[in-house]
Design goal:
The termini are far apart. This protein is of the alpha/beta class. 41% of the residues are buried. It is built from 16 helices and twelve strands.
């Protein structure tokens, strides 16, 4: 027999279930929409050939970015200047490049913002001479191969200044790294600014002399990641995760360098030994370096006026010298707050 109390109980339960469904379902739907709207977008990064940048191929190949919840697309460019210009135009979200070249990016709708140090040259770049030249001082009045406006130009200016020579004390043949090496082998240049492994190979092939490398001083050849204010505003989380993953990568380089060099060299069609040699001439942009470079604006802020002065001392580059390059350590500091070693 139907009990009135049973009916009331079932009616109360039905109302409770209806209330819960009415309350929870919209929250679930809203949560799905929230997650969908806030899903991390692909982070596109411009890159050119350089061991301090190419090391990132390990993170890409082994899924380190995905482990940090990020999809990264590496876009290849012929040189750092092209990558930086693409970044300012919005073709990529960020770009690897040297602070020296960032100072010379063509004007655009936004300003370049330097957000991470990836490496500092400490022997990977240098000057090779013909056998009869034994020092940088011997190059006064001689012809040196170096692409104007590029990092090779900076290396030459640093070397000349170190030995109290003026930029105009040498004639510059405005050619690329590879072309300079070829001209050296044909004895068409007295010296050339070249990076490894061409630097050592050229010296050996012509029985020449390496009279200077970036190991000889605290070089201004500083490479890193550059972006623009639009990316900081709209993709701050993606940028932070990229930097967190970079610190992951630096830890792996410390502990499993042979594995890293093996995987990266396969992507570059090099031998692991060759890539290891190239990378050995760099101070890597690990956590300690980035703390030093960005803390209280750190050394990077001191470097900007020094780069400007060198550019103004030798205007043969013909570039507009930017005075709006921003050093911004916020993304690095946020990454440091979030970073923990992956176990």
């Amino acid at each position: 027999m139907w009990n009135k109390n049973q009916f009331k109980f079932k009616s109360w339960v039905s109302r409770l279930i209806l209330f819960i469904v009415t309350l929870i379902v919209p929250l679930i739907i809203h949560g799905c929409i929230f997650q969908q709207n806030n899903a991390l977008k692909t982070f596109r990064v411009g890159i050119n050939n350089w061991p301090g940048f190419d090391i990132v191929l390990y993170a890409q190949e082994t899924g380190m970015f995905k482990n940090r919840g990020l999809e990264v697309e590496l876009v290849r460019f012929q040189n750092g200047s092209d990558a930086a210009r693409a970044m300012l135009r919005g073709s990529v979200d960020a770009a690897f490049g040297s602070l020296w070249e960032v100072k010379q990016i063509d004007p655009g709708n936004d300003k370049p913002i330097f957000v991470l140090v990836t490496n500092i040259s400490a022997g990977s770049d240098g000057i090779v001479t013909q056998p009869n030249f034994k020092s940088v001082e011997d190059l006064k009045g001689k012809k040196v191969g170096a692409k104007l406006g590029t990092v090779n130009h900076l290396i030459l200016l640093e070397a000349l200044k170190l030995y109290d020579l003026k930029p105009t004390d040498v004639e510059i043949d405005n050619i690329s790294n590879q072309a300079a090496a070829q001209k050296m082998q044909k004895s068409l240049l007295d010296a050339a600014v070249i990076w490894e492994p061409l630097l050592s190979n050229t010296a050996q092939n012509i029985q020449g002399n390496i009279v200077y490398t970036t190991k000889d001083l605290d070089s201004l050849v500083i490479d890193g990641l550059v972006t623009r204010s639009e990316t900081l505003d709209n993709k701050e989380e993606e940028l932070t995760r990229f930097i967190v993953t970079w610190f992951d990568l630096m830890e792996v380089v410390d502990n499993k360098s042979n594995e890293v060099f093996e995987i990266v060299s396969q992507q570059l069609d090099q031998t692991p030994e060759s890539f290891a040699q190239d990378y050995a001439g760099l101070k890597k942009g690990d956590i300690a370096m980035n703390r030093r470079m960005f803390k209280n604006q750190g050394r990077l802020s001191e470097i900007l006026p020094q780069l400007t002065a060198l550019l103004q001392e030798d205007l043969r580059h013909g570039r507009i010298i930017r005075d709006d390059v921003e050093i911004n350590g916020e993304a690095v500091m946020k990454a440091l707050e979030k970073w923990q070693p992956k176990t």
